[in-house]
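INFO  loader      accepted 1 record
INFO  loader      residues=450
INFO  predictor   begin
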Amino acid sequence: MPPPRRSRARKALVIGMASLLAAAGVTALAGTAQAASTLGAAAAEKGRYFGTAVAASHLGEAAYASTLDTEFNSVTPENEMKWDAVEPNRNSFSFGSADQIVSHAQSKGMKVRGHTLVWYSQLPGWVSGLGASDLRTAMNNHITQVMQHYKGKIHSWDVVNEAFQDGNSGARRSSPFQDKLGDGHIEEAFRTARSVDSAAKLCYNDYNTDGVNAKSNAVYNMVKDFKARGVPIDCVGFQSHFNPNSPVPGDYRANLQRFADLGVDVQITELDIEGSGSAQAANYSTVVNACLAVSRCTGITVWGVTDKYSWRASGTPLLFDGNYNKKAAYTSTLTALGGSGGGGGGGGDAACTVSYSRTNDWSDRFNGQVTVTAGSAAITDWTVTVTVSGPQKVSATWNGSPSWDSSGNVMTMKPSGNGSVAAGASTSFGFTVMKNGNSAAPAIGSCTAS
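INFO  predictor   done
INFO  writer      dumping tokens
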């Protein structure tokens, strides 16, 4: 984040800053700063990053790359930096796919999280077959070679990943490293990592540690011990994979804070929340607000760009649907970050945001509802676009006055009558979409207010 700066230089500075903000997706009107219009830009205004997991194999897909480049300012290689990908044979390293992601990120000014150096899973077979002495040598060599290759390019490394068991034991997970090297392998991995790169943040990363429980307590106690003894640990990653059976815990924020109080940064590293509509949107807001409430929560990474490539695709857990349409969860996330998909319509501080939910679903059609919420000032009029993807067609609307483009796929909705909405208040309109074999959610455009 550029520091604030000072007569003659000020005019040039203002112009330069306006250019930088525009490049980052932040819009401004003369004399009135407008909210950021992308996830990355909105997070940056809060002193944080907003990233996503990236697969090199999808970077050639135009919609994937465009969404990535527009919305995010940090990336995590999904699988390309794991042990089986970069060292499939002992001391024979293959960085091609990971390099592709890092180069793409650097060309777009994005940060990169390194994921991951020591993990029990996705290990090539040769690692498990080593004796204790050889395994220690191989582990330290792997950390050294990979970190040296990316030195200066990685802002945070998941040095050790998922080293604790699930359940109520708080015990370490069985793995080649734990079974042959013992509890000390985690400390050794962090000390080796620090010796290679003194600038990168060194993180421990795990799942099901999002609330206070036996597993998170065990991680907490390890981190507390490391800090007391000077073991180099800078951050703790909370994967935050949620679904109806494992919801966002009520003590999520408090749990992040207790780790931060140990003197480490906390990062939300693999966020995805199964569900849809307003419930999913509300859960995303909860997570974002928790991070924003903890000063040492430095950033959020969602585990994928689009639902169609998610490891939990059937649960539609991400911010963009399979057609890269922004979901209600996207809007709630952007709003929680302080951003807005809409802008002023010449009315000074006039602004509004939108959220979408599917209210009914049948085999041949579904009903959608768009909620328009005024910003900090009252608005007197608003406009929202709704785009369906063929062969879908909108067959009915209510609580608004629609007009259509020549394709019949883009509906521009305005108020039917009085469009006044008080500051912070909401109104809504609805519509029926005939699926015609396509049940994808419509793309809801930004809200324009006056």
